[in-house]
Every structure is written in structure tokens, then in C-alpha cells.
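thought: fold this chain, then report.
action: predict
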Amino acid sequence: PSSEDPPSSEAQTFTISWVNYDDAPLETDYNVPYGVTPTYDGDTPTRPEDDNYTYSWNGWFPEVVAATDDATYKATYIPIEKEPAIEVEDFIYADNIEGIVLVGYYGSEDIVVIPEAVDDVPLIAIERLAFFNNKAVREITIPDSVVSIGERAFHNCDNLETLNFGNGLKRIGKSAFVGCLSLETINLPEGVTVIEDNVFSYCPNLVTISIPNSIEEVGREIINFSPSVLVSTH
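observation:
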């Protein structure tokens, strides 16, 4: 063929864009060959909850197919209606299929013992931002019933000095204790399996973290900008 002939379809490449529900870009793949099915390589997309719903990831629209042209795929989600809030003293809870979750604390006590159950239903999780920016609390006791601590649950609890973890804890979410300026010692209980990214970052007075042998997954930079910390295992 002459140099002026158009390239065959097999020689063409395309640009594939991946966007979130609000069209915010997530990833762009360039030079995807003709006939190759593109893949999204980023973290699973998320959609923030609102007053009425949380959102569960549900794949891409339209369905991802082999590249024959430039294409854009948008993240889709299933809305899950929130249960009504349950307020008991200074705690705010929500009910889910497996148990009660703690979604907020608005008290001013310096020593907080989180209840193990509400109306005999076990508390299983401390949710995202539950204690965010609380400046009063100095000591927290987490019950044995809690298996997970959500993302940024204790973010910027500047005066939090002491954490008493329950023995049922399995997972600590991203940045759960980021910016806890007064923390000095962390002793995670045996049974914890996952510590996500940046959990104890920006804790400048943190001196020691003891991590159990049950750990299976440790995220990135869990002690970023916590310059003096010594990590040990038990």
C-alpha cells in the first residue's frame, strides 16, 4: 500500500476515559489498541453518602467493550436508603443488617466509654467521621463487639491521649486517627488483620505502635509525618 493509504483498523489506538457519577475524571487510558478491552486500574470509585442514602459501587455505564473508538465510561452506584438515626445520650447510631453502627458523638466528656450494645443489639462498627474534630475527648474505650473503625473516625481529635481497643477489632480504615496530636502509645489487639492507609499519620507525639502477628494487610504511609514512632510486633 502507498504511504497515503489510511491505517488499518488494527493499527488504530483510542483514548478511553473513566469518570465518576458527577463526571469528575478518574483515569484516562491513551493508545488503547483496536479490539482490546480497556481496564480501569484505579481504586474502586466511591460516591459520598447524602442525607437519605449511601451508595454501593455497581460497575460502569455503558458496559465496557473492546475498543473501536474513543469512549467514556461512567461509574454507577446502587442507592441504599439509610435507616433512621438512633440517639442515645450523646451518641448517634444507625441500624444495619448485622448490628448497630456508631455514626456520631456530640458529647463533651473527656473520658468516653462506647457502649457495647443498644437495646441488646451489638455495636459492630464506628463509622466514618464519628468523632471527627472532637477537642474534648482524652481517653476512648472501644468495646469488644466493634470489628471495624471507619475512615477518619477520630480525625483531628487533638487531645486524644489514650486508646483502649476492644478484642474484637479486625479492620482500621483510612486515616482513622490522622491528626491525633496527643497520642503517644498504640497497642493494637491480637485479631486485627487490616490497617489501611495513613491510619496514624500526622501524630507527632506518637512514640510506639505495637502491631499483632494477626496482621495480614498494612496500607501505605500508616505513620507518615509521625517522626519519632517505633513500630514493634507482638
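thought: worth noting. The mean pLDDT is 89.
final: C-alpha cells above.
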